[in-house]
Amino acid sequence: MPLPSEAAEASTVDELRRLYRDAEARAARLRFIVEIHAGLERGRLEDVAGTVMAQVSAFAGAGSAVLEIEASHGQPAWRVGVGRADDASEAVDLASDDSGVSVRLALRLLPGRRGPAAEDRDALDVALRGIAAAVGLQRQAAERQRLLDDIAGRRAELAALVARLIEAQEQERRRVAHDLHDGSAQTLAALGYRLQTVTAGLPDDAPLRRELEEIADLARRSVAEIRAAIADLRPPELDGLGLAAALRARLDTLGGLAVSAELSAAADRWPAAVGLVLYRVAQEALANVVRHAEAGRVSVRLFEEERQAHLHIADDGRGLAAAGMPGAGGERLGIVGMRERLALIGGRLDLDGAAGRGTTMRAAVPLPAETGRS
Description:
Beta-Lactamase, Heat Shock Protein 90, four-stranded antiparallel sheet, 9 strands, 18% strand, rod-shaped
């Protein structure tokens, strides 16, 4: 008969062994959960499903395991299985619904195996929730990417449409300029020549001579105005030499103003639509300076920075409010037109200037990645 002290010692050993086995079991469950999560992090479930399901099957003592995932996030239902099912084996079913994804795990235990203990079932539930969460994240990412691709495609379509719209506007300008050149301008020029011929045949003191000379001078001035309008409609420099040259030619026509210009050659690499819009914006801004600002100096900068095309025009005139530019009463039509042109190609327009302190206009347009350079 064992002594009381020996019985107590044996009981303590048995307790220690039980605690050790429990600790080992908990460690195994924890290791299983960690391995499942590590497997899920290696890639998409479709790619790692075989390994993950084999781990689940081995942990549960199952001869087969089938994972079913319902359709969600625009993705179809999906199913994967490992092992062979034995209809006579005990079945264990688990389900989870994490991250908006419903998953079901069907296990067929090996012959002679009992269903998992409560702690093991909890570990399987944790693993299944991890699978559902991983699938949810992957499907959300796929859906996000699909939406981004769709947005990018729509932006590309919009950009192409805007480019066609701008080109159509420019073609119409070219047509009108051509018609003016070959029509009204030629007719007025011919009229001026005829008047000169008629005037030359009259005596110097003829009363009609002076009147005809005034009419001939009016015809010459009309021809000059039409030719200036033709140049505004479609400056030849824009087609032949690029934005910087066309803008410089425009600045050369500004009389009575001291002009300083920094025009980057990078502008010649910008898309045609960007060049056209910025030229029209500069054209309108400079016209506002001449008509309204009462300025003595104007500076123009055309440059590229952080994948954006920039146009800055500053004058030392009366300022926005004094010149009747944007104010409480609204914006002038020219400013509205500039904003609308820039908005077509994703650009923006900023205006600064207080009364008596001049006006600064800043236009910026994003450039395609393959075009923009810092």
